[in-house]
Design brief:
alpha/beta, six-stranded parallel β-sheet, four-stranded parallel β-sheet, Rossmann fold, 2 domains, about 30% helix
Length: about 350
Amino acid sequence: MFPSSPQPYTTMMIIPTGIGAKIGGYAGDGLPTARLVAQVCDRLITHPNVLNGAQLFWHMPNALYVEGYGLDQFAAGNWGLKPVRQNRVGMILDQGIEEELRVRHIQAADACRATLGLSVTDYVVTDAPLNVTFKLSESGASWGTIENVGSLLRAAERLIQEAKVEAIAVVARFPDDEDSEMLAQYRQGAGVDALAGAEAVISHLLVKKFQIPCAHAPALAPIPIEPDLSPKAAAEELGYTFLPCVLAGLSRAPQFIVKKNPQTLSDQHIWADAVDSLVIPASACGGSAVLSLSRTKTLIIAVNENDTALSIFPEIVGIQACRVDSYLEAIGILVAHRAGLDFRSLSTTVPPLREI
């Protein structure tokens, strides 16, 4: 049993999008790790790339689903998080989605309403095709562009003003002419998710502009069956849409507090100074949230086994981090930290006191 604490023990878990992480770089394969981390903390703050599993998801009452740009603003101390019981979720559908594929996504949303009881209230079709493209950077990470940004923003504004939605799911038509070799590697559990970087661009844009929870699900034509499919990629092969996990996540995504007003502060609001620990792939320590939290009391745990396409290790960027080999070892560090134990005392040799 953990000792009592003046505030809930809060862990942030980040696996950046589109960098080919060996764990969390595929179709929801970061979920088992997130479920385990959630067992040893009071609050787990993480993001859609960790929790989204296409048509699969797992409800964790103590997990907060926070989009990446919002996560960066939170870690920097600019925004706070306000937990909610349920959000009114609206959908943006790209005009570039073919009619049959559009109907499939609307039916998926209806299924989430009827089966999961989610408050998905309205949708709007953009006034022009978004024309999303995606590319691979020299480092091997994926990214993308949106040709008709204005159409996306106008659609979001309509949902917020007319339907009074509190969170937005975006479904954009993504190109089908994906690099066949890259897709084959991904389906075998290797390489980088070519879609992820472009998805992040879409959600970052809306969260930055409207300060509202947002996540994206790509619309793609079905592809031929792959008998030797990797289990890591299998969730994306279950049907016509990746939308259910996004709607489930957004339904309870915390609202952003963009101004710290002493008159409206609540014990339920969460700010960066409440984050006790951060778990991150060891080679992906250059992100804004990591750098922000490195300047605080937060314990940073860098996991070696979760290799990525990047090579930004904590030592390179001057971050003090506890390096561990696996997420299972990271769990042990979290338990010790939460219990108020110096985890170095649990090793075979204890370092002597230093004279200063």
